[in-house]
Design a protein that fits this description.
The protein is α+β, with helices and mostly antiparallel strands and about 110 residues long. The chain has helices at about 25-35, 90-105; strands at about 5, 15-25, 40, 50-55, 60-65, 80-85. The protein has one domain (about 5-85). It is globular. The relative contact order is 0.30.
């Protein structure tokens, strides 16, 4: 699997660079729980995000995964375009590929 656990001590800020991955909240939660990654769920639809995940690639690239401005509760099995946040477009593209690979291995 191409993802490692991200601990709070390694949290970094991230920015959106027009990279998205289409998947479901339940798949991301399953992945996060499988690898022990941090995530937050506030699936009420009253904020800019309902789900936020912190991941890191085996090459040490920190990235975030989050839904953006859905403004509604999301079904666990609903396919959503999740934003990938990172330090650069190259990082978010690399991270998206690692994420897709990891999700396919669940």
């Amino acid at each position: 699997m191409n993802l490692q656990v991200t601990f709070a001590s390694t949290f970094q800020s991230s920015s959106f660079h027009n990279t998205i991955v289409t998947t479901t909240p339940s798949k991301l939660i399953a992945l996060a729980e499988h690898i022990g990654a941090d995530y937050d769920v506030h699936n009420y639809g009253d904020d800019k995000t309902n789900f936020d995940f912190d991941f890191q690639t085996t090459d040490g690239i920190y990235f975030t995964v989050y839904d953006w401005k859905e403004y509604r509760s999301l079904s666990p099995d609903e396919y959503i375009d999740f934003h990938i946040g990172g330090n650069s477009k190259s990082d978010t593209d690399t991270s998206a590929l690692a994420l897709i690979d990891a999700l396919s291995q669940l």
